[in-house]
Amino acid sequence: MGLFDSKYQVMQKGGFLKSDKVVLDNVSKKEAEKFIDSKSGFFGGDGNDYFIKKR
């Protein structure tokens, strides 16, 4: 596997009683960042926290 073949997961952070949940799987880093950017923000966000995890 080369450097450019890396795939990532977008994870939704869990809370006190919930565990982290996979939202997107097997995507490029650019796609993962685009998803997080579309879901975050003070006015347009969905209220959840996300992070990127390398597969």
Note poorly predicted spans: none
Percent range for helical residues?
10-25%
Radius of gyration: 12 Å
Beta-strand level of the residues, as a percent range? 25-35%
Q: What's the number of structural domains?
A: 1
Give the structural class: alpha+beta
Main β sheet profile: 3 strands, antiparallel
Number of helices: 1
Mean pLDDT: 88
* Total E-strand runs: 3
Q: What is the ordering of alpha helices and beta strands? A: EEHE
The backbone outline, from C-alpha atoms, is: flat
* Main β-sheet, spatial strand arrangement: 2-1-3
In whole angstroms, the N-to-C terminal distance is 12 Å
Summary, kept brief:
This protein is an alpha+beta fold and 55 residues long. It has one domain (8-54).
Defining traits:
55 residues; alpha+beta; three-stranded antiparallel beta sheet; 20% helix
What does this structure look like?
The protein has 55 residues and is α+β, with helices and mostly antiparallel strands. The chain has one domain (8-54). It contains 1 helix and 3 strands; from the N terminus they run ββαβ. It has one helix at residues 29-39; strands spanning 8-12, 21-27, 50-54. A 3-stranded antiparallel beta sheet has the order 2-1-3, with helices on one face. β1 and β2 form a beta hairpin. It is flat, with a radius of gyration of 12 Å. It starts with 7 loop residues before the first strand and ends with a strand. The mean pLDDT is 88.
